[in-house]
Amino acid sequence: MAFPLRPDAPELPDFSMLKRLARDQLIYLLEQLPGKKDLFIEADLMSPLDRIANVSILKQHEVDKLYKVENKPALSSNEQLCFLVRPRIKNMRYIANLVNADKLAGRTRKYKVIFSPQKFYACEMVLEEEGIYGDVSCDEWAFSLLPLDVDLLSMELPEFFRDYFLEGDQRWTNTVAQALHLLSTLYGSFPNCYGVGRCARMSYELWRKLEEEEDSETKGRRPEIGHIFLLDRDMDFVTALCSQVVYEGLVDDTFRIKCGSVDFGPEVTSSDKSLKVLLNAEDKVFNEIRNEHFSNVFGFLSQKARNLQAQYDRRRGMDIKQMKNFVSQELKGLKQEHRLLSLHIGACESIMKKKTKQDFQELIKTEHALLEGFNIRESTNYIEEHIDRQVSPIESLRLMCLLSITENGLIPKDYRSLKTQYLQSYGPEHLLTFSNLRRAGLLTEQAPGDTLTAVESKVSKLVTDKAAGKITDAFSSLAKRSNFRAISKKLNLIPRVDGEYDLKVPRDMAYVFSGAYVPLSCRIIEQVLERRSWQGLDEVVRLLNCSEFAFTDMTKEDKTSSESLRLILVVFLGGCTFSEISALRFLGKEKGYRFIFLTTAITNSARLMEAMSEVKA
């Protein structure tokens, strides 16, 4: 569904400026090494770089050869070497080995290291330890915002999730603050700020400090974006763990959308070659089906194919002049549409084959039962069978995490049994992964103290809200608690539907999960926007274990136009799924808002599990 925009829908800001800025800054840094140079690029940066400055632009600025930063020795004969890398220790070791090998061979060259998006002190320390700090010049390429689509910006930092939510490493919060500062400099300040989560609060405070330090000219600028919402991924793990059923989400789950494009293999292209396809609003076919529930996609594509055929058939009765017009004006567009149509039909067929093989319906049924809290024993048996049949280590982990979070932890007997079966089925090397999942609160065992929830609810009736909150906080500090059932009830996340849920004409955001569940993250955003604050949501915030980390900051802005007040920037810290994006696009259409998404990276259940895993695929 390219959701039809309401006539009064606000215009989106033009984010192409971010690309131009990033390109100009990179060119400036490359030109600081005049003359021919070889460029070594880290694998993670290749796709984002390609979206900003392709090979021909690099060649114009005297980049001779391009190399990938990898474990094998580099065979560059150039006298100047430039490294474009993420600030990681292993990259520093790689550069140090190369420079030290040159020193041993008595060779002198110029070396430049460009860190993206920022330079960390630890990296400089390693260069110093390796004895090459004086031989290299270091610079930062502050490229932290890549526009993947008209309403989607990504920081392309998939490691943010593990670094912050597992390791407790806060270094990327400064990168988030810098990115927000850049947006407010370019598009005016944000009059209304809301946020929930420890990381959201920290990033917000750092960003506010940056704003105060710079008494910039933006103070007088008219704000283009009326609201900004910062949200931590650990507020809502459930949504990220569910199987996606909107088209864009399914394409991501099946083929992996990387940096806004996807590699369709021979099974999709119906040829012996793979094809890299850019998926954004410019692909007219994709734009109309991206937010659709998968059950509607085939019908739409076959209708589109019939319409296309009818347009081709028009040429039959044409005279020469009409034919000339048809060839010069329409034919190219029709051919392009035909190519895209056959690709998406191929993708749908491939998805159908894979999902039928997996028995997708049974899987979805189990997920819905977990979300609703029914037939828990049957669902547990299904997960055990999944493990015993060795379907997939990542999928089995995902289902165990979904069971744990929706049930507020597994009872000790189930936890031990599932863990033992998993390790026997997939190998003992996964033991550390369980420790990680436990630390992150994704797969936990109910402690004896967890039976206090009944006592807790009685206590809360007897004492004031504030005191009850303190008691609950004391209880919840025993283990990272999800309280999913209570939150679900409070926010009505499981819609009660009489009869069948009509997926063709969705009534609410639950359509992104076949009508079974409204994404928690999206419901929170909807509720806060309705109230323009967290007022009345105290109980929800408490259940999210976020009493100190929910904030609202509203400035009296006379310059804010009614149009900009309907533009909302949602910042997902730790990743966001295509299902959430589709749900909020739907909400925007219903309420007359336009949402813009800024995420540290696009995520899905498999990426989430891989980030926690100690066994690298």
From TrEMBL:
Keywords, ordered alphabetically: Acetylation, Cytoplasmic vesicle, Endosome, Lysosome, Membrane, Phosphoprotein, Protein transport, Transport
Membrane topology, as annotated: Peripheral membrane protein
Localization annotation: Cytoplasmic vesicle, Clathrin-coated vesicle; Early endosome; Late endosome membrane; Lysosome membrane
GO biological process, one term: megakaryocyte development
Record-linked InterPro entries: Sec-1-like_dom1, Sec-1-like_dom3a, Sec1-like, Sec1-like_dom2, Sec1-like_sf, VPS33_dom3b
Tagged with keyword Transport: yes
Domain of life: Eukaryota
Pfam families (alphabetical): Sec1
GO MF assignments: protein-containing complex binding
GO cellular component: clathrin-coated vesicle; early endosome membrane; Golgi apparatus; HOPS complex; late endosome membrane; lysosomal membrane; perinuclear region of cytoplasm; platelet alpha granule
SUPFAM superfamilies: Sec1/munc18-like (SM) proteins
Iron among keywords: no
Entry's transmembrane regions: none
Family in the record: Belongs to the STXBP/unc-18/SEC1 family.
The protein's name in its UniProt record: Vacuolar protein sorting-associated protein 33B
Annotated source species: Urocitellus parryii (Arctic ground squirrel)
